[in-house]
Design goal:
318 residues; alpha/beta; seven-stranded mixed beta sheet; 10 helices; globular; binds S-adenosylmethionine
């Protein structure tokens, strides 16, 4: 689930942590989302991402999103970014390991239970009832203000591992992904990125934005989600960069724990890295006191303040 910063709390969301911990994480997320209801922050974040893709494509590929053939790796439980790209004029499809909840019908819910298990299905149903329709409505309104019409088109969504898809070589202008790569094991990223480089046209781009582990939000604890990081009065059990320091609590999701430097190494064999853009470069700066910095002295600041970093990637020629 993305907020105005594009941060997701969805997906790969059945880590084997104790049940009370799970409930605590889910309750924190629910409260955050309730607080967000009064402002279209999430929809604005999605639109900002799409506008960014359009601008980056123009800068490096000499074309915009209109008419571009695009693919999203991991559209999540609410594929709004993908529908926004389609409204922008892209011919876009995407895949996710999990079934999305589009209409909120009992049939969808049953399919979700079968494929994703009870926990994900119940979470998605609650989110659908409380938040998703409002967010969809907000996004439609924002797009309409730009003269664009968003349609909900489930045929664009494939439920599968992206690496298993038979996408023709040299067929795509753009591959994009938000808050997904940190949930994929490093060796599987190697396999996927080799395929991605082949799927892209020589002029194509991959825009991949993982949530880098050493950042203050990289541990994926709800107490440190981007929308609450700057709330210094918030009562928390965990400390800033808890995941690099004490490691007392585990997130409700699988994480590969890769650093920004590790992503560079994983992308390098198949892609030239044209640019790295940190979404919110100062996020968490106020928590890096002398004492905390002392404990984290093995980590360069570049890593501690990476969080969501967009890698702009051009496929290397064979
Ligand atoms: C945290 S969610 C992010 C979803 C969405 N991008 C967003 O920003 O809301 C991560 C998603 O990645 C999906 N995912 C992980 N590995 C994948 C793979 N190999 N192929 C397709 N989807 C994958 C998960 O199923 C999950 O829905």
């Amino acid at each position: 689930m993305s907020d105005s910063t594009g941060h997701s709390e969805c997906g790969t969301s059945a880590a084997p942590i104790p049940f009370p911990e799970k409930l605590r994480e889910l309750w924190s997320i629910f409260r955050m989302r309730l607080a967000d209801l009064s402002r279209p922050a999430s929809a604005e974040g999605i639109l900002a991402d799409v506008a960014e893709y359009d601008a980056v494509l123009r800068q490096y590929a000499g074309r915009g999103l209109a008419g571009a053939k695009a693919f999203e790796v991991g559209f999540g439980a609410r594929p709004l970014r993908l529908f926004a790209l389609a409204a922008w004029g892209a011919d876009v499809t995407g895949s996710d390991l999990d079934v999305p909840l589009i209409h909120g019908s009992p049939r969808e819910f049953a399919a979700m239970m079968r494929r994703n298990g009870v926990e994900r299905a119940v979470k998605s149903a609650l989110r659908f009832a409380f938040f998703d329709l409002k967010e969809r409505h907000d996004l439609k309104k924002l797009l309409r203000a730009r003269g664009l019409e968003m349609k909900v088109e489930p045929q664009r969504l494939i439920v599968a591992d992206a690496a298993a898809l038979p996408i023709p070589e040299g067929s795509l202008d753009l591959i994009y992904s938000e808050d997904v790569f940190e949930h994929i094991p490093a060796d599987a990223i190697g396999v996927l990125t080799a395929k991605m480089a082949r799927w892209l046209k020589p002029s194509g781009l991959a825009l991949i934005r993982p949530n880098v582990f050493p950042g203050i939000v990289g541990g994926h604890l709800a107490e440190w989600f981007p929308q609450v990081v700057n709330d210094r009065n918030r009562r928390r059990r965990s400390e800033p960069w808890e995941h690099l320091r004490r490691r007392r609590f585990r997130p409700n999701t699988y994480l590969n724990e890769l650093s920004r430097a590790s992503y560079r190494e994983l992308f390098a064999p198949n892609f030239e890295i044209l640019e790295e853009r940190v979404k919110d470069p100062g996020l968490g700066r106020a928590y890096l006191t002398a004492e905390v910095a002392g404990e984290l002295n093995e980590w360069p600041e570049e890593e501690l303040f990476s969080n969501q970093t967009l890698f702009v990637l051009r496929p290397r020629r064979a």
